[in-house]
Write a structure and sequence with these properties.
The radius of gyration is 15 Å and the shape is globular. The longest helix is centred in the middle third of the chain and has 13 residues. Helices cover 23% and strands 35% of the residues. By secondary structure, it is of the alpha/beta class.
Length: 138
């Protein structure tokens, strides 16, 4: 099997509210939106929003209300870009969990929770390259 992730699906409590957060709040553009799901094309990967209960049923995994231990990261080229994304997310209703700050590994990072509690890190890592097409090279 090849080492890759093709799609990340977030289970959301209120589909239309979450879609507004990503599209109007963060400025993302939907690539496809069949009934009850929306897909966003990202560099080299896609993100989907799907009703949380529907996703739990589809995966045969009950919702238990605990933090999953999974975060999703948006890597930016500069500290100013990190600050801009966190500001944009907060203005759209996200909860800032950790304001951006210089971190022990030499970068700059902060966290927000989207409207459904999914945890996103926004970071600038001086040791990684964000390519012109937006993909990440370690």
């Amino acid at each position: 099997m090849e080492q890759r992730i093709s799609l990340i699906t977030l289970g959301v409590d209120d589909f239309e509210r979450s879609r507004r957060f990503y599209e109007q709040g963060l400025g993302w553009v939907a690539k496809d939106a069949p009934d009850g799901v929306v897909f966003y094309q990202l560099p080299g990967i896609a993100l989907a929003l799907f009703g949380r209960d529907d996703l739990a049923q589809d995966a045969h995994h009950p919702i238990d209300g605990r933090f999953s231990g999974i975060t999703i990261a948006i890597n930016e080229r500069t500290e100013a870009d990190v600050d801009m994304v966190l500001t944009q997310a907060a203005a759209a209703g996200a909860t800032i969990l950790k304001p951006a700050e210089k971190v022990f590994w030499g970068g700059y990072s902060g966290y927000f929770a989207d409207l459904d509690g999914h945890v996103w890190e926004v970071a600038m890592n001086p040791f990684w390259t964000i390519n012109d097409d937006g993909t990440l090279t370690l």
